[in-house]
Records
---
Amino acid sequence: MTTGTTIGTSVIRREDARLITGNATYVDDIKLLGMAHMAIVRSPHAHANILNVDVTRAANAPGVAAVFTGADIQEQLGSLPAGWVLPDMKMPNHPPIAFERVRYVGDAVAVVVAETPQAAADAVGLVDVDYEDLPAVVNAEEATQEGAPQLHDDAPGNVDFEWEVGGGDYEAASADAEVVVRQRLINQRLIPNPIEERGVVADYNRGTNQITLWTSTQIPHLVRLLFSAVTGHPEHQVRVVAPEVGGGFGCKLYIYAEEVICGVVAKILARPIKWISGRQEGYLATTHGRDHIADVEMCGNRDGTITGIKTTVYANLGAYLSTFAPGIPTVLFGFTLGGPYRMPNVSCKVYGVFTNTTPVDAYRGAGRPECTYVIERLVDMFSQEVGRDPVAVRRKNFIPRFSNGHEVSTGVTYDSGNYGPALDRALEILDYRGFREEQRAARREGRLLGVGLSSYVEICGIAPSAVAASLGAGAGLWESSTVRVHPTGKVAVYTGTSPHGQGHQTSFTQIASSELGVPLEDVEVFHGDTDKQQMGTGTFGSRSVAVGGTALYMSLQKVVEKAKRIAAHQMDVPHRQVTFENGVFYVEDIQERQMSWGDVVGEAYAAKNLPPQMEPGLEAVTFFDPENFTWPFGTHIAVVEVDPDTGETKVLRYIAVDDVGNVINPMIVDGMVHGGVAQGIGQALQEQAVYSENGQLLSGSMMDYAVPTAEDIPSYETDRTVTPTRVNPLGVKGAGETGTIACSPAVVNAAVDALSHLGVKHLDMPLTSEKMWRSVRDAKAALRAVRRERAIAGRASN
Amino acid sequence: MGHEITVTVNGKIYAGSVEPRLLLSQYLRDELNLTGTHVGCDTTSCGACSVLLNGRAVKSCNVLAVMADGSEVTTVEGLASGGEYHPIQRAFRDEHGLQCGFCTPGMMITAVDILSNNPQPTESEIRTGLRGNLCRCTGYHNIVKAVQSAAAELAS
Amino acid sequence: MTTSIASPFEYHSPETVEEASRLLSRYGGGARLLAGGHSLLPLMKLRLASPEALIDLGRIGGLSYIREDDGGLAIGAMTTYAEIVRSELAAAAAPALAEAAGEVADTPVRNAGTIGGSLAHADPAGDLPAVVLALDAELVARSARASRSIPADRFFRDFMTTALRGNEVLTEIRVPGQGASSGSAYAKLANKASHYAVVGVAAAVRVEDGVCTSARIGITGAGPHAVRSRRAERILVGKAPGESSIRAAAQRGGVELAGQFNEDVHASAEYREDMARVFTGRALAAAFERAMG
């Protein structure tokens, strides 16, 4: 039995017992009586008119129960909506099964339902579709140009929206500045790759008209809401369950075509339907992330003062709007363009553009990694241009310490910050001076060693609903909890968040156990089932503990408050005199007057002697809407070595010092930092989704898309500073995304630093060995040419 | 056309008829209801489906069930014995070597294979040994620590 | 297009090579041999290959062994990579082979994939083809009626095409004794996603009285199939090994592939061309070190 607070301690995870024994239930582990299997016929063309879909052969194939085309059931399927609406944004139709035109390779054109997965797979090849091929476009900038193929009639020029944010006057600042650095930055397209691909099991009960969806999602409640909105099936007769979910990283944060199709087909056929995505299928049909083409610049003075930043971004949205797509390259990108720096002048313009590619939406960090990448690449380029150490430039421009709000030029207010100590600690772990010496020595031997920094601020704890709504969010982004104390004193916590690896069962138990003074094992956390939990929002944007944990904390306070009133009544003292500590209610100075948690809970349900007018029972519900986002920060440092012959680039050391406010479970927070950093290293060095010009995904499988392996990643050195937030009573900021948000620029800055003495100023991700080999070769050739010219000039002048 | 096979899985003998194209992963999951073995890709890349086949880790998504006829298979469900976790299970839990848990069964199986060949691997040997098992959550840091810790426990 | 379920096929598990050969003949090109399946099954799951039948060599006894043979090695075609990696005999007699086997894919794949399967599949980026070229191995092919031995440098004909006839089963790989003061090595730039070779180079050299008397270089990953790099080999023979001769040889590593270097999403032809040079140099340096160490 554990007593006292466990907040801040590394409690071993409660979810692990089932996960390490094979007893967890993921979607594909669910089998229902009479269940049929669905496979999807997908377009092999990036852009084509559908002339005819002939399902005769497929429908007659052995084991096939039904085949549906988009035209057959378009009424029932409706159109998938965007849940984030920007001013003047276009809202093109998004049929779950295409019936007139396909707009990317992987667009669904028909579904086959069969008795076995094998029969379904066989019948897919028997659906005959006639296409009329149309020209395709995959590059967001090219898609906006005249003559480019047009995807949607209602989005001329393929532009879905133009969005701006800013502050100060960047043009005036750059005109006055002594130095302006400019660069085109490509933030390449990534594939999120949770190791569990998506899947859905749908069931329909004819007697109750209830549709149940088990789906691998981060947002069961929003899936229920959107499913109902899309199909017209009443929301209270839809149950959505997120069972064990094998990772999400943002790509399970939407209403997907397959969720709608499975639910509708289950209802039509009145039998359970299962669809499980293959990996290659997922590469086409599950959202991608990033994909920005950005023209960026930073201005300032020779003394290292930065005065402004400007970005113009072509953000690739893919072929249709995914649920949160419009919010990612805009709101989650633009507002933090000042980073941790005094940045009086900010100018940001974003074009959201349709292309013939898989839809793009959030991927871990979602907009904020792209933002940090712009800032931190520019800070390094600016430092190089003014001839100052990048550490000194960062330090010089940091916003000074603040603990109760600091409004930045884009109009948002950071909650609390103290940026210097995190930088100092990271430098100390590295031994920055020592490293610079080592680097000089290495260069003399022809080795290419570099160090790169990334100091960041992120916008997390999503989100204050009114603010989010004013920026386009289509749903409130509060979070909910119910604390239900059972008559035996055991505690059930119901949270509207929906974890997929984050360990909520442990962290939330720690919060409840600490507040109620009950042992950890007396608390159970329930999530991910819309029939069990009150309406909730979900898990994304580093929000679960900051918003959902706070909702829990507030419910616990309500429960304690009621319990204290019961105790006071029982002990016959005014309730203000009752103190509750470590599971005991007592009255100060009167030793004999005390009641245990169990006694008071028992009274709450026995209801034989409750205070007048008090309802029996002990349960509380909270919907918590934060007043502000939270703003974690920190500094990451990467050390890389580039092989001058092959270009292979290896991260030798990785140091992460983060400040996420207070921490509930350090082990879990460290683990999330580790995972985020690996994804950041993946983006920096090796991951990229590549399309051919005609829209074929060339990196279409795990044989071609390089998810980092254990071999590609170093051990990490992590530490924390602690600057609590006042946005929530727990003082927590959120820790799920710091790694990806901070990491990539640190690695790229390190690689550029490794080659800087050769004259290299910028490298686009991913830093594949070929790219680095080419950079080294070209830089050396350029240096030789300069030397040759100098020699010739020297001879000429003699 | 069905083929009769007999396979011993986690010490229990199973006999049945399978279609040739049925993969060992599908046989374990769909026929035997041993769903602890997960499938994360279709290219033998991710390693989530790793099981021990006659004592050696293999990716069960790339073995036909008929090929396993007469073999002994150990899945994640068979790692613990006598109500006691296998040291690798304990190490993954204690070192926080898992988050979403989807890659974990395959990761532990490969780790068991690595340690059976090389009881005291270096960090670099562990990392190379695990390169056929992808994890997207942990960044591998704590997985490596877990394997080190299991190695130490097995040695003592 | 997105299925991970193979098309239906018939399955046979013959108990002799002769029976396997007869089955091959019976299907007249419609059947494929299954030798571990780590190259073939992934293609079938993606329906990039849909053979009418699979003939599993896994039940044929006596195809899995590594033994000393006339000063060299005889390796059964169904020997797994892992068995080669663990073999002290292989490590001593043909370090390049053990090294390359250890570089193939990953731990679980090496437990199931076989040397014969890899060679017969002849993936242009497979590791083993370069090694059998460098070690001057002979590949034994048997049909129901005959047996013949194919020199490695006549085995790889084109993209995924070998000298094996439709009814032949690759049964054994014979690596000749490399002689005293010889050394071999394999060096590889791996594709980070698949761990296949972007470029892989195997080198086998012999040094007698301070002079290189024999050098063979096999290159994989770079072109449509694995090839010997004879122009580089010629530079070395008759000279005292050293940095300058290795550098000169490396400069010619892969010149045989001029105009044929692979170009794909992972690497350009230009990069592969240069990596053929770099890894020729690395493999040679390691091989000479072993020969002279």
---
Amino acid sequence: MSALRANARAVRSIERTLATGRYNQRAFATALPRIQSSQRLSRPVFTTSNGQAVTIRPVQRRMKSSNAEPAPPFFTEAEPGKTALYDLHLQHGGKMVPFGGFSMPVQYSDLSVGESHHWTREKASIFDVGHMVQYHIEGPGAEDFLESITPSGVRDLAPGQSTLSALLLPQTGGISDDCIITRLEAGPKPLFYLVTNAGCRDKDYAYLSQAIASFDGASNPEANIRHVEADGQPYGLIALQGPLAAEILEANLAKDCKVDFKTWYFGNAKTITLALPSGESLPVVASRGGYTGEDGFELSIHPSQTVEVTGHLLTSAGKDKLRLAGLGARDSLRLEAGMCLYGHDLNDTTTPVEAALAWIIPKSRRADAKFPGAEKILAQLKPVSKGGEGVSRRRVGLVIEGAPAREGVEIVDAEGNVIGTVTSGCPSPSLKKNIAMGYVKDGLHKAGTELGVKIRGKTRKATVTKMPFLPAKYVKPQTEP
Amino acid sequence: MSGAIATSAVAAGRVLQRSAVRCSRPQFLRLRAQNPARSFSLSSRVLEKKYTEDHEWVDFTPGDKIATIGISEYAAKALGDVVFVELPSIDLEVTKGESIGAVESVKSASDILTPISGTVTEINNVLEDKPAAINNSPEADGWFAKITINDPAELEELMDEGAYKKFTEEASE
């Protein structure tokens, strides 16, 4: 019943959008050099004023207001969230499961999880990732604010450039959530695009509200955070992944949108314009990257057009090239690519050093030491042998003989002592081996170290293996010989 | 018509009786599937198939001591491509409801809980090399183990085919 109501709401929203001619091509001609005017005009969810959640009207200034914005909807298992593509999933035989507070497809009726995995590695798949949370952070203080909550070199990001990052906890340096930060605009009023995990929606809201309140208290320049939304609906987010992804996206560009896919590198976002079946064109922010280790793009799409764009990509590319893929394939693909899943491979108690993610902290940030938990993290970066603190555990990849090891399985040393735990694991469809990641005692983390995992009472051989398990196929600049 | 039915039932009966002696179990099950007609005289020889709420099946001929177990078609479908099967060891004594092995697909691992107590007398080694047999033929070639049962009365608590079908339909809603 609620699905029907939501649907009716979506239809009304589309009607409004069409009535106002938001996607009239001419209307967008002026908006193109900028990001997406509709995104910029969306309501801020909270701002820096007194730590209060405040609504700022399209007039871009900070106002003290009693017009408190209610928190965004937080979903529960009983009342799961639905993305704009919910009905499309059902039409394609999506088997819906609870994930991150949402009802999401784990697989579709046309392909098994294994088949969908191979399909993505050989052709292309679309994943609905609209359950993830998209924010804009803008204002003269945006760089300072982001650097006050993450260890990333936000200042040094070029327009369009993105980085994997983490919202860190003060003192402990624990990872409150992992995220992607992209600079959309430079200049005196920079604009950043932040994507966080659906499962952390509630706690990220609390974290960011608190962080921006204390940021403001220190008389920093203004920074505003808002959800990327329009008409009260979040922007859709889909991931087009696989070797045919670039070809499919290119075929769907509007006539006047020229993009060189050979020099559009991994980890870079562009505003591109897609041709819609209606003849109109639609600007979307497209980030080259994803969560599969394949070439691909994540497209942030106006809520009224998410269904149309997804449907049109599927139809225009055809069933021989492009299929929908669900969480099942997404999990085995990301594991082969050695990528972490928050809540499993990362949590509040793991630091970037333990998680083998120290590479997200550039030299400049190690030097300024001004991110949450910097003292702890910098001490961990220095091994005990050099007077540092080091870490007691490290995230590693494992290849396991015999049975697949799943989350929670104990890792043991040659003497049978428990020295760690598996945090993710599955039989790898591409490698035909059992792969896993987990945390092991420092010192036992070197590639080639032979350990054991205890599965249903039997100890199976586990070898520490470098990740990614399967080499990534990103488009990167050619390195000079 | 009635004559034809009687003839085929008698033929099926002969096949079944022969197969009980000479055929492998999977062949037997195939034959039985091909010859669904059953006559009164056969009923005492016909296997009784029961199901658990955990989606295992158990096939048992009243009067025999050995039962065959496996996972249901419904469970095999829900699991997806099975890539690994962990079988119990022979002579293992098992208690009803206890985990005696596992079936793993890309996305999940499921324990096999034995529907009956007894001693494992045979395991389907084919599954070690060809785990996909569970998907292809979960209720015949993909059988899991044979168990010499202690107490046939344990079977009475399980669901018959009709009740299990209803159970899975309710679970899918």
